Amino acid sequence: MGICFTQDNQWSPAMTRILVIIDPDETEHTALSRIREIPPTADVDYKVDLYVDARPVAASRADQNAVREFLTEKRTWLDGLVKPLKDVGYRITTEVIAYTRLYEDIIKSARQCKADFVFKPLRQHGALRRTFYTSTDWNLIRLCPMPLLLVNDQTSVHNKPIVAAVDVSDEDEAHKALNRIVLEQSKLLSRILEADVHVLFAYQPVSMNSASVVAGGTVAYNITRDQYEAEHKAAVALAKSFEIDEGQVHLREGAPDIAVSEYASEIDAGVTVLGTVARKGASGLFIGNTAEAVVERTATDVFVVKPGDFKAPV
Questions:
Q1: With contact defined as beta carbons under 8 Å apart, do 136 and 105 qualify?
Q2: pTM of the prediction?
Q3: Which of the four CATH numbers 3.40.50.12370, 3.40.50.150, 3.40.50.12780, 3.30.565.10 does domain 153-314 have?
Q4: What pLDDT does residue 229 have?
Q5: In the sheet where 148-151 sits, what is the strand order?
Q6: What are 266-278's pLDDT values in tens digits?
Q7: CA distances from residue 160 to 176, 250, 304 in whole angstroms, order as listed
Q8: How many CA atoms lie within 13 A of 169 on its CB side?
């Protein structure tokens, strides 16, 4: 039986295409190792891309063939890297790409090969760098139209719990649709990884006006019982519609990125599934959205999905 999820979030035995990104500076090649979680007999075609910056080579060598020779060397190395996987049955093609703007070239390659998913090593940054530098991961989170798996430094995610982060506080149809996509993809992953899905909703304090001062001058924020019960009921109903037990539905108070990352750590989760939409303007550039904040904190892989009508501007 093939891998059975598609870009349209439908359960299907049709062939799937996955684009896998190789980081030349990485030693373990986590994104490549993650395809081992999928049986080699699955009906999946893989395209493995190595993106290189050939400009220093062109600038440092007078020979006109220098860049061509450099790329040939990289292709030989890449082919050797994937050979053990091809030998056991994985269908893999490779390409070495001299990139100009990395995230744009990844999206273009994904479109050209009609990828259903993109696997890429996750890269975390220090606080100062996050303030002044928008990483390739952040740009892909915002702009990649395909579901994106950012692979963290874990040996395996097989049998490890999956955290599906949802937002049941907003009643608009766009949020409801995104929640459904998160749960659909989480359930599909759970079948492949043979793992349980845990639904998590992180609720924020009601408002500053509802704050009360407790011992030591600490300000405590409270959500009303009615609000809590309504949101818990909504989360349970959503989970049950995907055959997820009420005992695997959890509400946590706090900022979503902190609550999601802490809960994933508590249960030793393998993958966190998030829905996201692109942010525009200064707040999107400098603050970032919840998915970007989770990426900087988490020890899990992060699987990012977008609304079905999302159009990438790249």
A1: no
A2: 0.84
A3: 3.40.50.12370
A4: 87
A5: 91-98, 44-52, 16-22, 117-121, 148-151, 301-305, 271-275, 162-166, 197-203, 249-253
A6: 999 999 999 987 5
A7: 26, 17, 18
A8: 17
Pairing of strands 249-253, 197-203: parallel
Question: Stretch 144-152: mean pLDDT, rounded?
Answer: 93
Nearest Cα neighbor of 231 from 251, 258, 209 is 251
Across the range 101-129, mean pLDDT stands at 87
Residue 281 Ramachandran class (φ > 0 left, ψ -120 to 50 alpha, else beta): left
Neighbours of 236 (CB within 10 A): 19
3-state secondary structure labels for all residues of 230-247: HHHHHHHHHHHCCCCCHH
Mean pLDDT calculated for residue range 204-216: 48
Ranges of beta strands (E only) in 23-145 are 44-52, 91-98, 117-121
Residue 145: other Cβ atoms inside 10 A:
17
Could you identify the residue written with the tokens 């030591």?
A: 216
Asked whether 150 and 296 are in contact (CB, 8 A), the reply is: no
